[in-house]
TrEMBL record:
Protein residues bound to L-glutamine: 98
Protein name: asparagine synthase (glutamine-hydrolyzing)
Pfam families: Asn_synthase, GATase_7
Catalytic residues as annotated in Swiss-Prot or TrEMBL: 2
Length: 606
């Protein structure tokens, strides 16, 4: 894993010191080595975390005659097969890295070579003969890539801070701030800034003197029907190829269904597997015992660390300094902590991210099954539900965690039942992430508006999965995983987002949920492999005891930040007062996260 950055300026030569400056901003992504390529109007920079080909794999890398040069962030899991074919085609490869295969594949196939890649990546490839830059991002958006374009100049990087090191800090985009307020993140292709954008997953960006063009090479809705496959053997193969590295590989193990399955396959292939988890004193949030049980059964060498509010306060200044876009998911902090624990033992860790979206693991998917039953009930029953939702007290006893009130949760669930499936799913997810009710304007704001117009299937659960895949997964879950791991020099790989797994899952016609159970294919797969209590574990989520912490050890710091005068235009005092009085903790955390970001990165920009 690495960080890439660069500048193409057809109006003036690029200076080497500029490339060194922007690459320095992401040294945490690649602490092992750095490199650059500067020639006339182009400059490419790289910070490398050495995973494959430790001795000869430094970047940038060029083809035989030096006409093509690439900097690359990520992994190509099928690179050995590609390499063999390239050698048969007569190419002379000077390294054993996956990076070098890119320039030679491009020579053979042009941009079409992206269809041959199975991996997680972003890269920048300069074509000297065409005087053209090609940027590309993997199919699922596992690895990030941002850009700023003005006239004849393009600046890009793995994180927004690379761009901010070159240009004057742009204004905050009001539509992006609106989206963040309800979603808790800024959806692709937007960023919080005007004039800085994120390259969409499965897309390329070509920049030349003819201008800038973006092309989608991967379509989630047009997947080829895969050959009949056995999920057991497929997962075994996928985990095997994603465990290839020239450095130690471990596992982030929560004890939930997804990570337990990965642990099962990984331990079948490696003699010693190190696994990592964190635990909370608050038992509603503690999964440490579940992780320990799985580790004991499968024989991993397990490491667990407790996580407390004092740990969050310790981690706070580090994350504030590095997070260059507001992000309202409080689980960023324990994720950062477990990645730091893992990075002290391994350089690569597998993660269960993506399992919920690909195999239908969220409780909201059960809600869609319930909504399908409503036409069978008389209209008076529907009216009763709506009336019940409107009259449930706002404060009652907790449901599952102290971050949500039972009355609020049930009211949100009922109010969503009568909505179209896309509106319903987004409303439920908005409540989950920021504790608010989605306004109608949210559904009409780009890019949500465009996402709602895509050709979804008739199956409502699969529709909800596809929406989550294009929103919450790529712009919240994967962002969190990338930043938490890269801030610690750790590469996190996500087997459930392998192209083969995605094609298999979204081509299935049998349901992945029943009225009372999620992830049916994975639960069935585990029969006889792991104990029933693991196989039947419900979705818990990776949360924090916000109620206890915000009313206790975090109260002062949260209060100081949510009432900062600098953010009062975006979040007036009356809005914050209402969140405090109604104990809307997710809303408070959303404001807190924005204020923390604004103080570090955008003072005077509201």
């Amino acid at each position: 894993m690495c960080g890439i950055a660069g500048i193409v300026d057809f109006s003036s030569p690029v200076i080497s010191s500029q490339i060194g400056k922007i690459a320095k901003t992401i040294v945490h992504r690649g602490p092992d080595s750095g490199g650059s390529f500067v020639k006339n109007h182009v400059g490419l920079g790289i910070r490398r975390l050495k995973i494959i080909d430790l001795k000869t794999g430094d970047q940038p890398i060029s083809n035989e005659d030096g006409s093509l040069t690439v900097v690359f962030n990520g992994e190509i899991y099928n690179y050995k097969l590609i390499r063999e074919q390239l050698i048969k085609n007569g190419h002379k490869l000077k390294t054993t890295s996956d990076t070098e295969t890119l320039v030679h594949l491009y020579e053979d196939s042009g941009k079409d070579f992206l269809q041959k890649l199975n991996g997680m990546f972003t890269f920048a490839l300069w074509d000297e003969k065409k005087q053209s830059l090609l940027l590309a991002r993997d199919h699922a958006g596992i690895k990030p890539l941002f850009y700023h374009h003005k006239g004849s100049k393009l600046i890009f990087g793995s994180e927004i801070k690379t761009i901010l090191s070159v240009i004057q800090t742009p204004k905050i985009d009001p539509d992006s701030l609106f989206l963040y307020t309800f979603l808790g993140y800024v959806p692709t292709p937007r960023t919080i800034y005007q004039d800085i954008f994120q390259l969409p997953p499965g897309s390329t960006l070509t920049f030349s003197q003819s201008g800038l063009k973006i092309h989608q090479y991967y379509d989630l809705f047009s997947q080829p029907n895969p050959e009949p496959a056995d999920l057991d053997s497929m997962l075994d193969t996928v985990v095997s190829r994603q465990a290839i590295a020239d450095v130690p590989v471990g596992l982030l193990l929560s004890g939930g269904l997804d990570s337990s399955i990965l642990a099962y396959y990984l331990t079948r292939q490696k003699h010693e597997v190190k696994s990592f988890s964190i635990s909370f004193a608050h038992q509603d949030f503690n999964e440490g015992s579940h992780a320990a049980q799985v580790a004991k059964i499968l024989g991993t060498r397990h490491f667990d660390q407790p996580y407390s509010a004092s740990d969050l306060l310790t981690d706070f200044p580090v994350i504030q300094k590095l997070m260059d876009q507001p992000f309202a998911d409080p689980s960023l902090f324990p994720t950062y902590h477990v990645c730091r624990l893992a990075s002290s033992h391994v350089k690569v860790a597998l993660s269960g991210d993506g399992g919920d979206e690909v195999f239908a693991g969220y409780p909201t998917y059960l809600g869609h099954r319930f909504a399908n039953l409503l036409p069978w009930f008389p209209s008076s029953f529907k009216s009763l539900l709506v009336n019940l939702a409107q009259n449930i007290p706002a404060v009652k006893f907790p449901l599952f965690s102290s971050s949500y009130k039972f009355g609020d949760t049930l009211a949100n669930f009922f109010s969503g039942l009568g909505l179209p499936v896309l509106h319903r799913q987004l409303q439920w997810m908005v409540f989950f992430t920021t504790g608010q009710i989605a306004p109608e304007a949210l559904f009409k704001t780009s890019p949500i508006k465009e996402l709602f117009s895509l050709p979804y299937p008739q199956d409502q659960v699969k529709t909800a999965q596809l929406l989550d895949f294009q929103t919450y997964l790529r712009d919240a879950m994967l962002l969190k995983s990338d930043r938490a791991s890269m801030f610690n020099g750790l590469e996190v790989r996500v087997p459930y987002l392998d192209r083969e797994i995605i094609s298999f899952a979204f081509s299935q016609t049998s349901p992945f949920t029943s009225l009372f159970s999620t992830k049916l294919p994975l639960r069935n797969l585990l029969k006889g492999k792991l104990p029933e209590n693991i196989r039947n574990r419900p979705k818990k989520g990776f949360g924090l005891p916000l109620s206890d912490w915000i009313s206790g050890p975090l109260k002062t710091i949260v209060s100081d930040y949510v009432y900062r005068r600098d953010i009062s235009d975006a979040f007036p005092r009356v809005f914050v007062d209402a969140a405090w009085s109604q104990n809307h903790l997710r809303t408070l955390w959303m404001v807190f996260a924005f204020s923390v970001w604004q103080e570090q990165w955008a003072k005077g920009r509201i």
